[in-house]
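Data card: per-record layout.
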Amino acid sequence: MATERDQTDPDDESGTGAPDEVRVSTKFLRAAQWAADRHAEHAVGLPGTPSLAQVLGLASLVIEDGGTEREAIAAMIVDALGDEMPTAELRNRLGKKVTALVVATHPDRGTIAPGRLPLRADDWRTRAAAALERAATEADPSALRIRAAGVLQELRILQRELRRNGTIVYVRSPAPPLELLDHVRALAGTLARRRPRAATTAELRTTVTDVERLSEIENATIAWRVTHAGAA
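The structure for this 232-residue chain is written out next.
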């Protein structure tokens, strides 16, 4: 993709093209570097997932789904943040419009890939319920696209870890494996129903099916109970 000129206005997206021909601007490159640095600093991703690859992978999902550069930047930033929200810094770096998308999509993510965020079981359940509610009620198509891309990326991480390491990955889950899989089905299903023609929807469905196949739920549950004795 071609690189556009430097943009002094954080909210200026001139020259980025239509959603299906998004070109990379200097703003995008700076945001990607900032997100990768922040991602590495907070170690949000699972082991073995390079920070730059993860944030660019999420941006790619958003763009392939018909998203704009602004949406792709917001997705990278959301993925890189922990629970903190440096709103003032984001406005200065990226502008009000990107920051508004980040604020809209930041809460209640990270409920699928085990170990994604360090949570207790009760905290995870609260976040999971809120994530499902947001997926069902989100009115902004841009925010919904970013959420769908984030869920798909987490599913891919879980799928990859299951293929590499087997069901032992579930010991990092704050909730029992069956409960986590129920949440996965509900969240992916809600997003698929709300976005039936979206580019990410078919892959959401097939990835959930593959995760279910790989999970070996009885073995996963035994391993989880040994690790989390008395937790749930």
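Known properties of this structure: DSSP finds ten helices and no strands in the chain. Residues 39 and 173 are 20 Å apart (CA to CA).

See the next section for split statistics.
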